[in-house]
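User: I've been trying to design a sequence by hand for this structure and keep getting stuck. Would you show me what you'd pick, starting by listing the structure so we're on the same page?

Assistant: Good idea, let's start from the same input. This is the structure you sent:
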């Protein structure tokens, strides 16, 4: 974690500002455990009393929380962008799902363009490393791992765009996606041809970002999200046909079992 030694001003206040900034920048994530008090005081070069004062202030602000016997953690400050009732409506509504994909197309395209232009060498290395892990997992044909790395890859691009508002908004939205509110990504990764196409699309996104070609990165994200939209529409169409077929079979079974008058 990139903690820095505290120089001047009131030590506790300086600690508070540094931790607040790390949370705001997305470096410290909700639920993440901070180093031990001894280690953190050494990294920040402050006394333990000053550190405790800062932690208490951050706890009062709702940014940190202490778990007995476990340590100090970043509070779950993100939550969901929407109320539980609205989330339930999203889950049952096709328009909400495809509007979500359109929303991602626009914002992630912008994030990819920003990542190509503004991302640090370290940011781009993280994205490239995640893509390499996606390639490795692809050969093992594990839909759950592929879906997990897919989300991590896209979030790394958002993080590399260095827009604080976009980062926290998209992180909240990806939490909903991980919970299957919009659609089950694992189902999509079970189809061989779809899996291969998705990997190639991620390859194109990564290549454009590594080349620092913002326009190409944005176009690659748009093409990827267009593909996901078509694949999801076909998947839902097949699910509806299967549901209708089951209803017909059930109706026929009930009709056959019904005694004649």
């Amino acid at each position: 974690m990139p903690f820095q030694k505290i120089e001047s001003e009131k030590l506790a206040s300086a600690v508070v500002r540094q931790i607040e900034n790390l949370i705001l920048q997305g470096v410290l994530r909700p639920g993440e455990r901070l180093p031990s008090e001894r280690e953190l005081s050494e990294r920040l070069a402050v006394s333990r009393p000053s550190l405790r004062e800062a932690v208490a202030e951050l706890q009062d602000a709702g940014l940190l929380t202490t778990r007995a016997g476990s340590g100090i953690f970043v509070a779950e400050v993100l939550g969901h962008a929407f109320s539980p009732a609205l989330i339930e409506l999203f889950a049952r509504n096709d328009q909400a799902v495809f509007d979500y994909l359109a929303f991602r197309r626009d914002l992630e395209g912008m994030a990819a363009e920003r990542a190509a232009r503004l991302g640090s060498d370290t940011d781009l290395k993280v994205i490239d490393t995640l893509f390499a892990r996606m390639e490795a997992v692809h050969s093992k044909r594990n839909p759950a791992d592929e879906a997990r790395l897919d989300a991590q890859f896209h979030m790394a691009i958002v993080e590399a765009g260095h827009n604080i508002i976009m980062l926290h908004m998209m992180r909240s939205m990806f939490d909903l996606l991980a919970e299957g509110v919009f659609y089950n990504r694992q189902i999509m990764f079970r189809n061989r041809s779809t899996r291969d196409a998705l990997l190639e699309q991620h390859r194109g996104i990564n290549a454009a970002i590594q080349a620092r070609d913002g326009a190409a990165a944005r176009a690659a994200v748009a093409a990827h999200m267009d593909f996901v939209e078509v694949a999801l529409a076909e998947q839902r169409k097949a699910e509806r046909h299967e549901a209708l077929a089951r209803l017909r079979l059930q109706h026929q079974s009930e009709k056959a079992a019904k005694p004649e008058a």
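That's my pick for every position. To get oriented when you compare it with your attempt: The chain has a mean pLDDT of 84. DSSP finds eleven helices and two strands in the chain.
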